Amino acid sequence: xxxxxxxxxxxxxxxxxxxxxxxxxxxxxxxxxxxxxxxxxxxxxxxxxxxxxxxxxxxxxxxxxxxxxxxxxxxxxxxxxxxxxxxxxxxxxxxxxxxxxxxxxxxxxxxxxxxxxxxxxxxxxxxxxxxxxxxxxxxxxxxxxxxxxxxxxxxxxxxxxxxxxxxxxxxxxxxxxxxxxxxxxxxxxxxxxxxxxxxxxxxxxxx
Length: 207
Known about the structure:
The chain has strands at residues 2-6, 9-15, 20-25, 36-40, 43-49, 54-59, 63-67, 70-74, 81-85, 90-94, 97-101, 108-112, 118-122, 127-130, 134-138, 140-144, 147-150, 156-158, 161-164, 167-170, 176-178, 182-183, 186-189. It is mostly beta strands. Strands 1-4-7-10-13-16-19-22 form an 8-stranded parallel sheet, with no helix packed on it. It has an 8-stranded parallel sheet with strand order 2-5-8-11-14-17-20-23, with no helix packed on it. A 7-stranded parallel sheet has the order 3-6-9-12-15-18-21, with no helix packed on it. It is globular. The two termini are 30 Å apart.
């Protein structure tokens, strides 16, 4: 089991590859016990990467990612936040702030190519602020229990399950194509994020 924990500040600027790439690959004889845990309670600030800003790929046992701090991804040439599963279960849980702005491709991209469960959860304490497209592919479940702020003026894409039990704020109608989303709560238009907006060199405290 590999466990990576960050409670400080990580800043990456102008990288020809990915900003952070979490890769879980099985060993030949210990497939069932191979696991990767990534935990952040600090600030991760990534800008100007040629590939994905924060990429996580699972080819083995369980991959768990938990953000209790801030993940700021901006001016990324590929997908800003990409999470892909090819093997056992994968869970991404956000209890903090994820800020995805001014990126060339998708803001948030999830894809599950496995028979096992993959779930991306924005909890009641979490905030995701994105101005790009959200893509939820494969058999991935996207669950919003907190605050999801969208500044994207076209349709997001959902190929499996997208459930809102929290609040979605959008600059206009929040549109989802292919499989419709399940909205069990509020969809509020034209609400500004205000105090949670990321500003350079500012320390943000998650809700």
